[in-house]
């Protein structure tokens, strides 16, 4: 799985992990967060590689199914993109007018982004 796909899977996991079984959660966590291969996960959990593969695919399908219905990750990406666009525009305005109130707004938005 490509790195970009792992990031997307991680985001889906953050939103929808409560819909997975404990085993599926563990497999996704080891794959995404620990960057283990399915073979390494198999050894870690003491189950066959095919068992890991099946559980992984099933978990991935569950996560994608909920994303298709709820679109939380899609909205998240759109909101982040919109916020970045607003910040760029505010920085251009600040560069032009050097208004400290604008800089204060920029800083507030950036602090908020870091805490989300």
TrEMBL record:
The UniProt entry, under InterPro entries, shows: RNA_pol_sigma_r3/r4-like (IPR013324), UPF0122 (IPR007394), UPF0122_fam_protein (IPR054831), WH-like_DNA-bd_sf (IPR036388)
User: Which Pfam families does this entry report, sorted A to Z?
Assistant: UPF0122 (PF04297)
Gene3D superfamilies referenced in this protein's UniProt entry, alphabetically? Winged helix-like DNA-binding domain superfamily/Winged helix DNA-binding domain
Question: Which family does the UniProt entry place this protein in?
Answer: Belongs to the UPF0122 family.
Cross-referenced HAMAP family? UPF0122
Role summary: Might take part in the signal recognition particle (SRP) pathway. This is inferred from the conservation of its genetic proximity to ftsY/ffh. May be a regulatory protein.
Q: Which NCBIfam families match?
A: YlxM
Q: What is this protein called?
A: UPF0122 protein COB47_1549
Q: Which species?
A: Caldicellulosiruptor obsidiansis (strain ATCC BAA-2073 / JCM 16842 / OB47)
Its lineage reads:
Bacteria, Bacillati, Bacillota, Bacillota incertae sedis, Caldicellulosiruptorales
